Amino acid sequence: MHFAILPFFAGIALAARPWLYAPDTGAEDRYAELGIEKGSLPPLDEIHCLNDFEWAARNVLNSSIYAAFSGGAGTEGSYRMNQEGFQAYRFRPRTMVDILSVNETFTTQMLGYNFSMPFFITSCGGGGYIHEDGELNLIKGAHDQGILYVASMSASKSQEEIAGAAADGQVYFQQFYTRGWDDDKVKSYLDSVKKYGAKAIALTVDSAGDGDRWRAARYGAGSTDSDATYITWDYYDKLKSMTDLPIILKGITTVDDAKKAIQHGVDAIYLSNHGGRQLDGAPSGFETALEMYALDCFQEAPEVFQQIEVYADGGVRNAGDVLKLLALGVRGVGVGRSFMYSMVYGTEGVIKAAEILKHELTINAQNLGLSKLDDIDATYLQKRMFPNL
After folding, report:
1. What's the family (predicted)?
2. Is 317 annotated as contributing to ligand binding?
3. Would you name the residues annotated as active-site residues?
4. For the chain, which has fewer Cβ within 10 Å, the N-terminal or C-terminal residue?
């Protein structure tokens, strides 16, 4: 009896443990050996994973700016689970498979546009607080690596500046909040999105209310705004009549809304809980994808992935996370904070972050036993048998 109870209390201890910035992979010790002092960046060639960029950003940004980017809503439960939720499922690798050319199969299409990788730089605002060139680093880095960039409506750089930094023929999308604007102002903004060259609009639908971000609020960076934004299916239909650009619904967190999106002819859906920054307790993109695929969930709608393009983000810190989302049928995987943190090194940091993910994707796909990336499906995943260990 005594030993049978131990796993139960171990589970409680794990659930109550203090949140750590990232798994300990030796970065702290290595940077101490190099004599990296507070306020200084490690050499870029000493950055070996996406979590290293967070360490670097935390070391050079002031506390208020770092809190604004790193924090989540409320207890930050959703923020933590965005990352930790991936560990609830293990891989089921295949062996004795020809994996020599899998790295040549990573290209993907999103809304008919070709990209080199199935991951992309998702919308995050305020880049000017991290680097003087702000989001210009992101669009330049995205072009260098052939990946999608979704520009934020809250970017520190204007639409015109971001468009001016884009390479000829570069495809990028524009994120959009309705912000309670009247129809004329909304129509004017949507027209400007097309004018400056964005090829699609990512309409954020998970922010009808503001985010209650306690960590940021301690530094005066949290919002005290209690205003609500009007976002309904009828309003979406009206928006469709204002532009001929595709509209992606960003912030879908249930099977129910995914099905409604299909009924309303939505071009693509984006599973996201806003980086855990809006509703504390909202499911991650991975959890929502699991719900759709009915892997140990109460809902079931795997047909969604065949009926509409699905993108997702939330807590992605390595290529293993990317692969788990792809296994469930997600078309494109968004990465936000890590690319923002990489901007402490400017455009070169953004490029390095993408290169790290590409390298990880190659070796993970090889070790998973994939001849080509399209072979991955839900049979490559299984729920952990011993979740408390």
Report:
1. Belongs to the FMN-dependent alpha-hydroxy acid dehydrogenase family.
2. yes
3. 274
4. N
Task: Using the predicted structure, report yes or no on whether residue 17 has a pLDDT greater than 50.
Answer: no
- Known binder of ligand: residue 80? no
Average pLDDT, the chain: 88
Kindly give, in sequence order, each residue whose CB lies less than 8 Å from that of residue 377, ignoring residues fewer than 6 positions away.
Answer: 327, 329
- The predicted model scores a pTM of 0.90
337 annotated as ligand-binding: yes
* CATH no., domain 102-383: 3.20.20.70
| Cα–Cα dist 354/199, whole Å | 22
Residues in the chain: 389
d(CA 248, CA 336): 17
The structural domains of the chain, with segments of one domain joined by +, span 102-383
Give the lowest-confidence range in 8-12, 115-119, 199-203, 204-208.
8-12
- The most distant pair of C-alpha atoms in the chain lies apart, rounded to whole Å, by 70
pLDDT average, residue stretch 173-200: 94
pLDDT confidence band for 154 (50 / 70 / 90): very high
Res. 161: pLDDT tops 70: yes
pLDDT surpassing 80 at residue 197 = yes
Using DSSP's 3-state secondary structure scheme, residue 319 falls into helix
Residue type, 195: K
Q: Are 205 and 182 in contact (CB under 8 A)?
A: no
Dig out the tokens for 151 from the structure: 């520009």
Cα–Cα distance, 269 to 253 (Å, whole number): 10
The answer to whether 342 is annotated as binding is: no
Closest listed residue to residue 149, CA positions, set 125, 173, 113: 173
**Cα 124 → chain centroid:** 10
Pairing mode of beta strands 89-91, 381-383: antiparallel
pLDDT at 19: 46
* Per-residue pLDDT, 142: 99
3-state secondary structure of 20: coil
Rounded to whole angstroms, what are the CA distances from 217 to 26, 126, 221, 269?
A: 31, 16, 5, 31
Q: Which residues of 45-59 are buried (b: 16+ CB within 10 A; e: fewer)?
A: eebebbbbbbbbbbb
